[in-house]
Amino acid sequence: MDILRRFFDSFIGGSAPHPLEMSGAFPGFGPEPDPADQPEPVYRRVLMITHNPVLRTQGGRTVREYFRWNDPDDLAADYIDDLHWASYGYARYEIVERLVVDGYPVKADGFRYDETTYLQAWRERRFHQPDGVDYLALAREFRIVERVSDGAIDEVWLFGHPYGGYYESIMAGPGAFWCNAPPLAGTEQAARRFVIMGFNFERGVGEMLEDLGHRAESILGRVFAGVPKNANLWERFTRHERTHPGRAECGNVHFAPNSDRDYDWGNPRPVKSGCDDWYAYPKLTGDRRRWVDCREWGSGDIRLHHLWWLRHLPHAAGTMDGIAHNWWQYIIDPNTIG
Question: What is the model's pTM?
Answer without folding.
Answer: 0.92
